């Protein structure tokens, strides 16, 4: 792991070698490092030294370094090294990284780059560019080995040897029929232990878990959680093998899915990171906050409707933040449970009713416990039994409402083919604030009149 002190030392070394024009030593220094460490050192350099470094590093090293930086940084890097060198770097990138980058690439340069590629790879890349970013088609690579299932073990071993340097992160050989349809897999271990003249179809595993090019990223993540994959084959709608998702891409998809869901929970854009400029970050956050601001005004209008009740019993105001806060908290807890459950499991009508019933009983237990406690506290503090009943009864009901809202709203969105994470923290909290205030002041008006 590269520490802050080590990074400073490495950065100074790079600047020194650039000044002394020791470019061969510079390339050797970078080749010995991992892609992440390379990217960290590059990003720590002043801009003029960073540009100089890019112009003097070989294409393979730059391509390796680009694996660990985001898309915008990749585009900036390619812009600094010029179109000719940029095309050579692009040609060395893995297909799944390449296609994500080319989706943001200027159209003129994209056309020129594809024209310079060989016809087979250009056709594959063009096809991948058309797949949405959150599908298997955009995550797959063509760096796998497939062979017809009527071939022998010896044929498979010879083909694997010839393409060994081409492979990426997989312990299996994919078997296909004459039409290219995926029929099974064979592990390299089984190849080594089998008779060289044995037919592959006699030793293959026929029950293959695979996905289609249109499979959503969230479903790929769900499969990853359930099974131990080193790679996941991808087919088209006819079952023809067209690609493979490597383990590192699946882990990246898992992290991205988690990051996206967290962004939705906080209603913050996934495009905001540590380096985003303040004005851009503010513009990306504002829409949701403005919407919530206007929804929040409803809470103020509710309080104004019960102004008379507040004037009669000023102590009611003491418990307003508590009632609203507790309702929002329990709603967010239920929301988190449901969204996590939806991400990990397929649900049917029976499972939905079971979940709602479970959360209802949970809300009864939580509501009863918290309602009784706050009733006693309100009575002792203010010496008013009716106030204790109002506060305790209101908290009991609002905790049930909040829990049910946090359970039912994401399920409804999920069934409507919408992402349940959008029913997230601030939105659920704001809606529950409205529920809690209406319940609180309605009970107060009835009992304290």
UniProtKB/TrEMBL annotation:
SUPFAM superfamilies: CBS-domain pair, MgtE membrane domain-like, MgtE N-terminal domain-like. The keyword Nucleotide-binding does not apply. InterPro entries: CBS_dom (IPR000644), CBS_dom_sf (IPR046342), Mg_transptr_MgtE_intracell_dom (IPR006668), MgtE_N_sf (IPR038076), MgtE_transporter (IPR006669), SLC41_membr_dom (IPR006667), SLC41_membr_dom_sf (IPR036739). Pfam families: CBS, MgtE, MgtE_N. PANTHER family: MAGNESIUM TRANSPORTER MGTE. Acts as a magnesium transporter. Homodimer. This is Magnesium transporter MgtE.
């Amino acid at each position: 792991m590269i520490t802050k002190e080590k990074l400073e030392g490495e950065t100074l070394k790079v600047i020194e070698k650039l000044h002394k024009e020791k470019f061969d030593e510079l390339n050797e220094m970078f080749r010995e490092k991992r892609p992440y460490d390379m990217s960290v050192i590059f990003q720590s350099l002043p801009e003029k030294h960073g540009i100089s470094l890019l112009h003097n590093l070989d294409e393979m090293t730059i391509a390796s370094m680009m694996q660990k930086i985001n898309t915008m940084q990749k585009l900036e890097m390619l812009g600094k090294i010029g179109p000719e060198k940029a095309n050579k770097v692009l040609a060395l990138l893995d297909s799944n990284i390449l296609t994500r980058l080319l989706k943001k690439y200027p159209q003129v340069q994209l056309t020129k780059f594809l024209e310079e590629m060989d016809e087979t790879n250009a056709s594959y890349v063009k096809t991948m560019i058309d797949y949405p970013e959150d599908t298997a088609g955009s995550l797959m690579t063509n760096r796998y080995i497939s062979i017809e299932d009527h071939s022998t073990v010896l044929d498979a071993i010879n083909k694997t040897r010839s393409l060994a340097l081409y492979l990426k992160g997989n312990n299996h050989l994919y078997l296909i029929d004459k039409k290219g349809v995926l029929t099974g897999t064979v592990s390299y271990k089984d190849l080594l232990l089998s008779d060289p003249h044995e037919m592959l179809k006699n030793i293959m595993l026929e029950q293959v878990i695979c996905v289609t090019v249109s499979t959503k990223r969230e479903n790929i993540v769900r499969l990853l959680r359930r099974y131990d994959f080193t790679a996941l084959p991808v087919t088209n709608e006819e079952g023809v093998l067209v690609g493979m998702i490597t383990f590192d891409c699946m882990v990246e998809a898992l992290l991205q899915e988690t990051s996206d869901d967290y962004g939705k929970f906080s209603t913050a854009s996934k495009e905001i990171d540590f380096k985003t400029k303040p004005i851009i970050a503010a513009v990306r956050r504002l829409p949701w906050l403005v919407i919530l601001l206007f929804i929040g005004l409803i809470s103020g209008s509710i309080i104004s409707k019960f102004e008379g009740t507040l004037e009669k019993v000023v102590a009611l105001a003491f418990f307003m933040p508590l009632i609203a806060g507790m309702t929002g908290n329990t709603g967010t807890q239920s929301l988190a449970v449901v969204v996590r459950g939806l991400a990990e499991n397929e649900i049917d009508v029976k499972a939905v009713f079971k979940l709602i019933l479970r959360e209802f009983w949970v809300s009864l237990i939580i509501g009863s416990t918290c309602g009784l406690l706050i009733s006693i506290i309100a009575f002792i503090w203010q010496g008013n039994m009716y106030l204790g009943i109002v506060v305790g009864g209101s908290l009991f009901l609002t905790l049930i409402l909040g829990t049910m809202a946090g359970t039912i709203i994401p399920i409804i969105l999920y069934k409507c083919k919408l992402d349940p994470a959008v029913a997230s923290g601030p939105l659920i909290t704001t809606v529950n604030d409205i529920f809690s205030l209406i319940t609180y002041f309605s009970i107060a008006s009835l009992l304290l009149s």
